[in-house]
Amino acid sequence: MSIDEEKGAAGGPAPKKRPKRGWIVAGVVxxxxxxxxxxxxxxxxxxSFCNAICHSPMDYYVETYDSGDPNLGVTVHAxxxxxxxxxxxxxxxxxxxxxxxxxxxxxxxxxxxxMLATGKQFASEEFCARxxxxxxxxxxxxxAGLWGFAGNDEKYNPHxxxxxxxxxxxxxxxxxxxxxxxxxxxxDLTLPEGWEAPNVQ
Length: 201
What we know:
By secondary structure, this protein is an all-alpha fold. The protein contains 11 helices and no strands.
């Protein structure tokens, strides 16, 4: 019989059980993983995450987001506290395909190499004209307020185009470039402040 067993049998104090170190280590490791994961998730929500690894093609997007340039659509979003993922939803399948495209260096760029050539695909009415993004106004309500925009004749409304809806939001509205009044491919309308006329060839 061991000394501890003799003490226990004799009515002495029971031996102290040592805590299992394995459980403590596992708990600490789990806590570190949870904290690191939460920190990563918060960082993942920030524009700086977008170009931390993927410098090309994301540098230009983050630079314009941070630029404060009043002529860029992204500046309005930045001032409103909107981040990239408030518009560009982070779906797992999309992110996996983006990582694969980046790793294989297989993504379409504009001719000058600054931006993805797929940007216009995002700027559809479905993507851009959500009521939660425009003070609760629907596309029709926004359109109703644009007759005679920028001091032009009341018969002109860029959102009520005679092009039979052949235009998408991204034809005029740009997030990371200057806004372009496509109407002026044919017309000579007064441009809204900070907007540009299209390059007509």
